[in-house]
Specification:
This protein is mainly α. It has one domain. It contains 4 helices and 2 strands, in the order αααββα. Strands 1-2 form a two-stranded antiparallel ribbon. A hairpin with a 5-residue loop joins strand 1 and strand 2.
Length: 98
């Protein structure tokens, strides 16, 4: 039988692995649930710490998604007509792939 500490560690590992495929909106939803659970005070200290740790990981995941989105937006440029286009660097990468 696994100890409670080992069980929490395994659970944290599983959540990190599934976190990589987690969409931004779902991650925010999970964060909101974690915050609500901790704020109620209905869970013990150990569970609060485990939830806090999961929340920190979710925040990191969300920041990564936002960073990638900001980078992609920065790559968009407007021409003289105000139309958006992908920057030349990305177009060159696409041309080289062909």
């Amino acid at each position: 039988m696994n100890s409670p500490v080992l069980t929490r560690a395994l659970s944290a590992q599983e959540s990190v692995m599934s976190e990589k495929n987690l969409k931004f909106e779902k991650a925010i939803e999970q964060l909101e649930k974690i915050i609500a659970g901790i704020e109620t005070g209905d869970i013990g200290l150990e569970d609060s710490l485990a939830q806090y740790e999961k929340g920190v990981k979710l925040i990191g995941h969300c920041r990564g998604i936002l960073s990638a989105a900001e980078k992609r937006l920065a790559e968009l440029t407007r021409d003289e007509n105000g139309d958006l286009h992908i920057s030349n660097a990305d177009k060159q990468d696409d041309d080289e792939a062909d």
